[in-house]
Amino acid sequence: MALLEVEDLRVAYGKIEAVKGISFAVEAGEVVTLIGTNGAGKTTTLRTLSGLLKPATGKISFDGQPLDGVGAHKIVAMGLAHSPEGRRIFPRLSIEENLRLGAFLRKDPAGVADDIGSAYERFPILGERRRQAAGTLSGGEQQMLAMARALMSRPKLLMLDEPSMGLSPIMMQKIMSTIGELKAQGTTILLVEQNAQAALSLADHGHVMETGSITLSGTGEELMHDESVRKAYLGED
Amino acid sequence: MQDLPDQLANGLALGALYGLIAIGYTMVYGIVQLINFAHGEIFMIGGFGALTAYLWLPDGTGMAVALPLMILLGVVCAVLVAIGAERFAYRPLRGGPRLSPLITAIGLSLALQQAVWAFYPEAKKARPFPQLGGGDLDLGFVALSREDLFIFVSAPVCMLALGLFVAKTRTGRAMQATSQDPDTAKLMGVNTDRIIVTAFAIGAAFAAVAAIAQGFKTGEVNFRMGFIAGLKAFTAAVLGGIGNIYGAMVGGLVLGVGEAMATAYIGDVPGLEQFGGGSWKDVWAFILLILVLLVRPQGILGERLADRA
């Protein structure tokens, strides 16, 4: 059984259906990506998985347990961490306080301290500025903090929503190579990206979403060489 | 201006009282963007709770014994009513149109007033509140009454405890996170419903302490006392920058001192003789609010909304 299984998931805002019955799975140790244009329903899917939105119908199971009706704050306790679109760091809390909130439910202070140390090793800039209000960080630094914060819960599955959004090419490369490192360390990742090229090159499996439906699925390699994907998402004609 | 120290002490005592009530408005607003118009009635119920504790004690019980019990029962009553209001009146409306909880708050405010009026013994008119007794504390330049001392001790203690709680504890950090971004706080594993209840409870506890202070000052409690006190405290919260707990206290102090100064000295200004004295104090308080908001619409310690994004 896969770590995450989504079956015929539908999500609606009032009468408008944003996700129209999608099914996919994420195996432990894999990187799976959802690509597609703005408004395809990718963010809605992630927000539903983490419990911020309620599905209209469909089944979600995580680590063998159903997620229906489980509150968002309990889903993170089950091992599903979500780094949301737009980074959403807590701007008036310090960097270190942001990281501590990522470990809010953990009861092992020594382990938390260790993990804060590793976050600063991974992103030295965060360590240098640990007492600074997170809102003073640049966009790329905020993205580092958002990812580090999500990792603080030691998740079984890390969901990243548009980590490269609005970043400079250099910063984007840094973030993508960090995702590559996490993958190499065995972290299971569900990655939502508009930067299809970068996402597919990292992914074991990918799904193309269009207006609420999955229209194409395959390995990262297959999708990268697919004619229609190249036309629509990789800017080739 | 001989009595300036006295007027200043008077204003600070009044302001600290407003500030304590204002904390409740500002904390709830900071977290759920709701103006809890029933907060004045929570304050009033705190006052009646304290009175009840006093009436239960045998005649002749000293204040040293009575006061802690009055505070305890006042706080318990106010907190229970606030938690009940959150659970049964506001929570079902969360996520709905923003006007609905506002209307509910006004309705709840009336309902609580009428409930005390109808069911508390002899509450159809003001009920006398016990007095602290004892003489003034003479500091040389100013003599402080026992009533003022009560608020001068309790307000800083409450503020210090709240400041430490918010900055240093796990729940306090979760509270800050929830006020900055509730959805993301949930993603961290914060049970935001519990944080909201905590905010209501802290605000209610502080309001109960303020009600006891006001009972001592005015010598009575009555079912309508929450209206004007709540309005003033709400003004203090807006003046200080709503959503900011220190702003609430600063706004309260500015309002209290401004009110005391205007009451004492406006009548001495040539041409303004008829505007001095206690009957104009509310007018001056709201003029102060308008003047501050003209210069700083976000309030004294408030941030512009754009900074919060």
Percent helix range of chain A: 25-40%
CATH topology of the domain at 4-87 and 157-234 in chain A: Rossmann fold
Order of helices and strands of chain A: EEEHEEHEHHHHEHEHEEHH
By helix and strand content of chain B, what is the structural category? Answer: mainly alpha
The count of helical stretches of chain B stands at 12
CATH superfamily of the domain at 4-87 and 157-234 in chain A: P-loop containing nucleotide triphosphate hydrolases
Instruction: Output the helix-strand order of chain B.
Output: HHHHEEEHHHHEHHHH
Helix and strand content put the structural class of chain A at alpha/beta
Please give the number of β-strands of chain B: 4
Strand content of chain A: 25-35%
- Binned, the helix content of chain B reads over 70%
Please summarize the sheet with the most strands of chain B.
Answer: 2 strands, antiparallel
Mean pLDDT of chain A: 94
Q: Give the CA-CA distance, first to last residue of chain A.
A: 40 Å
Membrane topology (chain B): Multi-pass membrane protein
InterPro entries (chain B): ABC_transp_permease, BCAA_transport_permease
Pfam family, one (chain B): BPD_transp_2
Transmembrane segments (chain B): 12-32, 39-57, 63-90, 102-120, 149-167, 195-216, 246-266, 278-295
